[in-house]
Every structure is written in C-alpha cells, then in structure tokens.
Amino acid sequence: MTDPQTITSVIVVMPAHNEDRHIGKALAALKTAADALQRERPGTSVSIVVVLDCCTDRSADITAAYVSADPRFGAMDVRLRSTGASRDAGILTALDCMPGDGPATTWLATTDADSAVPEHWLVRQVELANAGADAILGSVEPDPDDVDPAVLRRWLELHPFREDHPHIYGANLGIRASAYLAVGGFPKLRAHEDRVLVEQLRRHRFVVTATDTTRVVTSGRTHARAPEGFAAYLRTLGADLPVATG
Known about the structure:
The chain starts with 8 loop residues before the first strand and ends in a 6-residue tail after the last helix. The chain is built from 8 helices and 10 strands. α5 crosses α8 (230-240). By secondary structure, it is an alpha/beta fold. α1 (23-40) links the parallel β1 (9-16) and β2 (45-53).
C-alpha cells in the first residue's frame, strides 16, 4: 500500500528576467535532473515551468526550444517584476493544470535561471520528502568561472558546506505543495521572498530540512537583478575585501 504522503508528482518553477546568458545551461541541467528522477522513480510525473518576467532578450526563444522538444517543459509570460510573485504565479498555474495528484503528494522545487542544478537534485529532494521533510533548504556555490577568486574565497569562508546549514536560497528550495498552500506561498517581494516563506513554514511547525546534498552552482555576477539578492550580497563581499597594493 502506498503511503499517502509519498511524492508522485514534481513541479519545478524557475523565474527568469533577461537571462539569455545563463538560461540555456539552467534548462539543460533541469532536463538532466528530470530524466534522472524518472529513471529512478518511473511513476513520478515532472513538469518544469519557466516564468518569463518582463524579458526583452532571447530568454523566451531559448526556453521555447525546450518547450517544443520536451512536453515536460512549459513557459508563461508575466509582467510582475518580482521574483517572489513570479515563483508564486508559476506554482499556482502549474497546480491548477495538474490532474489527479493532490497537494500532499506533489513536490515543488524552485531554482533560478542563472543556476545549474546537479543531476541528482530532484532524486534527492524526493528521497528527503518521502522521509518526512515538508521543505528542503539546499546549498549554493558561486560559479568559480564567473566570480572574482578573492570574493569566492571570502564567500566560502562564510558559508561552509555542511548539513543543517542556516542558509535559505530560492535557487535551491523544495517544498510539499500542501505546506506551501497552507502558509500562503511566496510573498510578492522583490527580495527575501524565500526567507519569509521559510519563516512561515517554521512558525506553522512544518518539517524543514537543510542539506548540502543538493548543492546548486549559481552565477557569481555582482550586477544585481534584485536589490538585496545574491548578486548584491556578492558585491558587498567584494567591497569588504582589502584593496590589493604593490
């Protein structure tokens, strides 16, 4: 008999705003992760929703190639100018379109269009969900090819990779759909929407698991899209470093 909490469907939501430099790599990584999950758990359905928020570059064209080639991919255009609102819109639209599976057996995973998830990303999230997690906080690592080495060293000093870490990243987050709906989903904020969501989950005593076993590589750029997002934080780290002399 199947446990009523066993995950049978997975929805991945990825917001994008003018990410044509990175989105191809992000989509390829998501396809690989979806393939791995369905090899491991053939009965699990997967859908990947790209939320194109006010894109004026080639992000939509790059995404369209995946949508036309793979029925698991879908895209929607919004004009929200908000990462939190874009994530929420993608999740709610995907849930409305899903036949059969209820929110208790549906897993939501979010990442960013400048990030590349590992092959086992969804496999591991589903394992942890089936073991009792209502939400999973994954770790991230700035792309060493895309960040100043001194900034990377400082970031690694402040963010050691370990289990039960204290960090929250929208680029590497998973949550059971029933828990997401119970706390009202992502708030419509331009920054820190992931932090506010997790605070609500903990306040309602959902099981939140922090892990380094699903580490995502994300862009090391310091040109910020969100005013207080990851890129802005990396820029702050760079500003705090001593100026090289000699």
